[in-house]
Specification:
This is WD40 repeat domain-containing protein. By secondary structure, the protein is an all-beta fold. It has no helices and 29 strands. It has a domain of 88 residues. The protein is globular and about 55 Å long. The termini are close together. The model has no long low-confidence stretch (mean pLDDT 95).
Length: 358
């Protein structure tokens, strides 16, 4: 795609749809995970839509039923096998509409190539569950996330990785580290036997304001141990957003009342860059890295804030420019020389998938 060229595909999802995540699934296809709010029933229902950006069409879309005794659900992630013969969707169901009584319960769903629901499987790893990664390989399906042993995320916290066969007929492996957990909006990759993860770390025990819960870690799953953790930002920053690269390095950005904080961590866990700039944006939604350029997608600081992309020159430690983006992009990610997102109109009546070349 040439710079500035865009693809826009109306998703045709129900009114009240909110996107949660966008997963590239190969061959120009993307799977959009989210939820649909039913105002009358005051519930949300998990929903997914698969789009083919090259053919500019919706391949299939589906709501996902939740257990009759649960209060609602949302789709968190969606992946496909290598030839798109099957799709796997990870959902979280809420057991109670009251936050003080609610437990999150994770479920895996397998869909056919044309969007027929074939099987649902409870992940079943703990009392209150959440997840930030879904991965599929010929060996099976993997889910990674966190557990709290008590309500309202009171701890004790654990990190888990659970693996299932592709038929979702049995769990083939399970690892649990009862030494804290990363929260639901963390960024993660599976690299063989290792989990690379960045986000807000929920520690067990007392946490002082001097601690820095926004961190990146490398975890040896098989031996249930942390190889390294690098803690970067305290709790009083806003929009702390990580980007985990394929080589194991990571980038991080966060906002204070006046500054944009930028950090880079190499694959060994060493901080190679850590600097601040006058903040060009007042909210961060996504980060993208190309060479020595960090792209930050977020909201401007105007009274009538709009979406925009700020580019940061990592060598010069300067803001290279700010490009405003039309529409209200609720969920977004960078992918190579493009960004993909889902824009939703003000009344959540229409959702549009967008892929825009930079």
């Amino acid at each position: 795609m040439a710079a500035g060229q865009s693809v826009e595909i109306p998703l045709g999802v129900p009114e009240g749809f909110t996107p949660v995540f966008i997963d590239p699934v190969g061959s120009g296809r993307y799977c959009v995970s989210g939820e649909v709010l039913d105002d009358m029933a005051a519930t949300t229902t998990a929903y997914v839509a698969v789009v083919d950006a090259d053919k500019r069409q919706v391949v299939w879309k589906s709501s996902i039923p939740f257990a009759h005794d649960h209060a609602g659900s949302e789709a968190l992630r969606c992946v496909s096998d290598s030839n798109h013969s099957a799709y796997f969707v990870l959902t979280k169901e809420d057991t109670n509409s009251s936050e003080s009584l609610d437990q999150g319960k994770l479920f895996l769903q397998k869909f056919s190539a044309d969007g027929k629901l074939l099987k649902q499987q409870r992940v079943g790893v703990g009392f209150d569950e959440w997840a930030y990664l879904l991965d599929v390989t010929p060996a099976g399906v993997a889910v990674a996330g966190g557990i709290s042993d008590t309500l309202q995320r009171g701890g004790k916290f654990s990190t888990f990785v659970a693996r299932f066969d592709q038929d979702l007929s049995k769990r083939t492996d399970f690892a649990k580290l009862p030494t804290g957990a990363y929260w639901i909006d963390s960024e993660a990759r599976l690299d063989g036997a290792y989990l690379l993860v960045g986000g807000q770390f929920l520690a067990n025990g007392a946490v002082s304001p001097a601690d820095k819960p926004y961190a990146v870690s490398k975890i040896d799953i098989g031996n249930s141990r942390y190889i390294r953790s690098t803690h970067l930002y305290p709790t009083d920053v806003d929009s702390a957003t990580p980007a985990i690269e394929a080589d194991g390095s990571a980038f991080y950005a966060a906002l204070t009342s006046s500054e944009l904080l930028v950090s880079a961590v190499d694959a060994a866990g060493h901080v190679t860059q850590h600097f601040s700039l006058k903040k060009p944006l007042c909210e961060i939604k996504a980060l993208g890295v190309q060479g020595q350029t960090l792209s930050v997608f977020g909201k401007t600081c105007d009274k009538a804030a709009v979406d925009a992309i700020a580019t940061i020159d990592l060598e010069q430690k300067t803001v290279g420019g700010i490009q405003r983006v039309s529409g209200d992009v609720r969920e977004v990610r960078f992918e190579g020389n493009a960004w993909v997102g889902v824009a939703v109109d003000e009344r959540a009546q229409h959702a549009t998938f967008r892929r825009v070349a930079r």
